[in-house]
């Protein structure tokens, strides 16, 4: 049995990834703020095992306990061939220049985009240190990790931090007796609800808003299902370099 934990699974890339993972011999564990009835229906039809946890992962104080609970269940089953954690949950807000964003929205973004995947990774590795099976963590990155974007100072910073965390942990795990493979995957611009948030931004707060409107108008946004397919092909079928940052452009 292969176990997949996917955060932010109710929409966008998370939903597309979850749907592709609903297969026999897979146990899919979805964590999101809201339910997705489509996933439940697909799970019943596919014969896959499906678990849903309704959680707000920006509340970082709950994260360690969630990982402990899930991994204890997996350990008790005693059937794990592979265990995968896909840290997909994230938010682009606040889209505002420094000096205009409010403290609460900045704090929530840092917790969800950076602190939560760090804590989940830390606890995952601690609890599975002696597990002799395939173990992999996938952190969803962004092109914003590599370049500054007006109004995205919080998002850019959290994604850059997550990439460096991935590189550092990959270096550490390369020396472990039963290593966990960790990577970052940058999906590029996709047709998701997050893009809708971006397009609705005021130009005063986000100077490049017209560029993102053009992406949508000109059909340049990738289908999340296509991106999810390429990402899963990478982590399930290819040899992965520990700590590497992968980009969707390498595979399409």
Automatic annotation (TrEMBL):
Q: Which GO terms of the cellular component aspect does the record hold?
A: cytoplasm
According to its UniProt entry, the protein's GO biological process terms are:
tetrahydrobiopterin biosynthetic process
| NADP listed as a keyword | yes
The first-level EC class reads oxidoreductase
Which GO-annotated molecular functions does the record name?
sepiapterin reductase (NADP+) activity
Question: From which domain of life does this come?
Answer: Bacteria
Q: What is its main location?
A: cytoplasm
**What InterPro entries has UniProt attached to this entry?**
Biopterin_syn/organic_redct (IPR051721), NAD(P)-bd_dom_sf (IPR036291), Sc_DH/Rdtase_CS (IPR020904), SDR_fam (IPR002347)
Matching entries from SUPFAM superfamilies are given as: NAD(P)-binding Rossmann-fold domains
Q: Where in or outside the cell?
A: Cytoplasm
State the UniProt keywords alphabetically.
Cytoplasm, NADP, Oxidoreductase
Per the similarity annotation, which family is this? Belongs to the short-chain dehydrogenases/reductases (SDR) family.
Q: Which NCBIfam families match?
A: PRK06924.1
Task: Indicate what this protein is called per its UniProt record.
Answer: (S)-benzoin forming benzil reductase
């Amino acid at each position: 049995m292969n176990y997949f934990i996917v955060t932010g699974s109710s929409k966008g890339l998370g939903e597309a990834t979850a749907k592709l993972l609903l297969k026999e011999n897979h146990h899919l564990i979805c964590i999101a703020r809201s339910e997705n009835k489509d996933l439940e229906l697909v799970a019943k039809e596919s014969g896959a095992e499906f678990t849903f946890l309704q959680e707000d992962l920006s509340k970082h104080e709950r994260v360690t306990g969630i990982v402990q609970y899930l991994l204890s269940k997996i350990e008790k089953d005693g059937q794990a061939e592979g265990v995968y954690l896909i840290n997909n949950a994230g938010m682009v807000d606040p889209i505002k220049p420094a000096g205009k964003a409010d403290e609460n929205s900045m704090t929530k973004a840092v917790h969800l985009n950076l602190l939560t995947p760090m804590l989940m990774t830390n606890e995952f590795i601690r609890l599975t240190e002696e597990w002799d099976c395939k173990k992999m963590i996938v952190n969803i990155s962004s092109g914003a990790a590599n370049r500054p974007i007006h109004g995205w100072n919080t998002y850019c910073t959290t994604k850059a931090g997550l990439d460096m965390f991935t590189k550092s942990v990959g270096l550490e795990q390369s020396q472990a007796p039963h290593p966990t493979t960790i990577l970052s995957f940058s999906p590029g611009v996709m047709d998701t609800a997050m893009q809708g948030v971006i397009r609705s931004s005021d130009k005063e707060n986000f100077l490049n808003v017209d560029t993102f409107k053009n992406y949508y108008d000109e059909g340049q946004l990738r289908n999340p299902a296509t991106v999810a397919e390429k990402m899963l092909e990478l982590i399930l079928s290819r040899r992965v370099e520990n700590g590497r940052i992968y980009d969707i452009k390498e595979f399409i």
